[in-house]
Amino acid sequence: MRCEFVTVLLSDYADGVADARGRRIVERHIQLCPACHNDLTLLQELIHQLRCMTLLPFGVAARLPRYQRELEVRLLARERARRRRPLVAAAVLLVLLLEVASVWLVLLLVRGG
Question: Is pTM, for the whole model, over 0.70?
Fold first, then answer.
C-alpha cells in the first residue's frame, strides 16, 4: 500500500482508535516502510508529550488528536478534489464537442434535404 494512504491511518492507529482493518494495514506497512515506521514513532511520542503537558487548558490535549484527524480528512478531500478537476474539464469539453457535432450534423441534413 502506498505511504500516502497509510499516513491517513497513522493518527487513529497511534491514538488506539483504529478499527481492526486499519490496524492490520498500518502494522503490515510499517514493517516494510522505515519512513512510515519512523513517522508513527514520532507521532506516538508527540501524542505522549501533548497528553503530559499541563500548560494547555483543560481538555485541549484530549481534543488534539480529533483536530488532527479532521485536518487530515480535509486535506485528503482537498487533494481528491484537485485531482478531479482535469476530469471534469475533459468531460465538459467532450459534451461541448458532441453538441457542436450534433448541430453540424443537423445543419448538413437540413441543407442536403
Answer: no
